[in-house]
Sequence to fold (566 residues):
Amino acid sequence: MFIMMNKEHNEHMAVSGIPTDMKLLDIHEAARFLRVSEVSVRRYTKSGALRCLRVGGRRERRFEREDLEAFVGANSPTRALAEASKPIGAAQPTLGPADVAAPEFATIEGMPVPWGRHLCQLYETDRGRVQMTVPFLNDGLNAGDACFLIASEPARAHLIEALRRVRGDLGPDIEAGRLRVIDHAQNGSAMLAALDEAFGAAMEEGFGKLRLVGDMAWFLDQGLSGDELVNFETRYDRQIGHSYPIISLCLYDARRFSGIEILHALKSHADTFDLPLSRFLLR
Amino acid sequence: MFIMMNKEHNEHMAVSGIPTDMKLLDIHEAARFLRVSEVSVRRYTKSGALRCLRVGGRRERRFEREDLEAFVGANSPTRALAEASKPIGAAQPTLGPADVAAPEFATIEGMPVPWGRHLCQLYETDRGRVQMTVPFLNDGLNAGDACFLIASEPARAHLIEALRRVRGDLGPDIEAGRLRVIDHAQNGSAMLAALDEAFGAAMEEGFGKLRLVGDMAWFLDQGLSGDELVNFETRYDRQIGHSYPIISLCLYDARRFSGIEILHALKSHADTFDLPLSRFLLR
DNA sequence: TCACGAAGATCAGCATTGATAATCAATGAC
DNA sequence: GTCATTGATTATCAATGCTGATCTTCGTGA
Fold:
């Protein structure tokens, strides 16, 4: 009683001009916002469906309003990028992110990987670039998944050639829409939109599972900055990577990225840490 | 005086040299920002987990927004290897006396970490350098462990100053041999020998537990190559890091190392992957 | 209709947190 | 200069949130 009064008191008091825009909600307030139990809120964050921050030695959950609103709207994947009017007042009866309902696994080098994961892989030689990705794509093509590939030039030819070598002629796969090479866009936003579009189209064509391999050096080849790359990955992680039945594998050539960029790459692919990370650090 | 010193790296400087965006929050505002009580804010600062400035003869706490934002961590599983550290074999029957003493843990940001681990931590701002290490060393000094520090110059003074700020005068710790600043050697082999010597000496003096914090930029400052660094870390991992009751925390400033070097740093600290890695990727 | 997954409720152990009190010294208003 | 207020420090104690577990209910789809 006293506590609540304490918390809701003076929220809008712009004391001394300090921007109070960063309003964090605790788990109780978040649960009330979503009209679910606190237990469910914990489940959402644990599964990665709902983003949350942590504070203190007890690692209590803190939520930003923006994330809660995004979670409510996460029901319509194809419109994941539309950030127009979102009715936040009346909660929709069935809220449930797509990845919560994906009970199947793909296999990457023997590791079971659930769908809806956004992973990164670091490598430092050309061989490392294809070592994990080619089997991953080959498995997907065999399983009838829609497989997407993004890469700029030396890497693109290298990946395609390596895939062709284990699979033979790729013509049938391409014609059937199982293998799609996506041209990299001019900037991150355009690429996000293109991916959202491509994934939505594949789903409508009846593909139940998607796979993406992206060699992120295309970003550098477009002359884009590291900041823009972080921005792209963060938005992909929040808006797309967990909203489709897709496994996204982002490749980082450690020879081409700086230490800071590698650090940012790791931080924006937290899903990878649920798996044995050492398997994703290739030669 | 604290204030001026701390703002030397701020980009947004007005002509006067005083940063324009320097909005200090008092403890009440900081507590409201984090959605915790003022008592907790005081606890955070006392442990060194949250940086604060002091003003006036009453040493009132003042906070920078950036410090508060850095304190709010990302979501990540909190389970640490309480279970994973157990021997893989079946249930142990009766244990010998040596085994009874074994099951002890240190605590790093709430994570239980067994002794004998060789961990790495990546950071990209000066703030990140001290965020995890200062509480780690402070805990060790409080517990009576022997704490070793290796760093070359800008980092060394920064770490010592940050530790002094939460702990007060370090003279007693140094005189009692609890805190030892080790001069970096000319090359990796000499450093390995020096560390082996220093650890053995501390053990003979009766210290039961050791802690090491090393900012690996000293390697670069010695003009040594990345290959030599890998070699050093690999040998440390094999020969020393697991042979003493020590927790070794190696810091990598992502601003100073290349992508390949960061990749190698990760690969040579596989112990880190047993813990929630995202907690070791700091800002 | 049955099976399945999600949601909700509950239990336990545990460490942190929040509230409160007492003391002390600096601050700010008069 | 006085004097009430504020914040620091230390301490105690109850409440809260986290983790993991089990169990039941509910709605949907096979």
Notes: Chain A touches chain B through 49 residues (CB under 8 Å). Chain A has a mean pLDDT of 82.
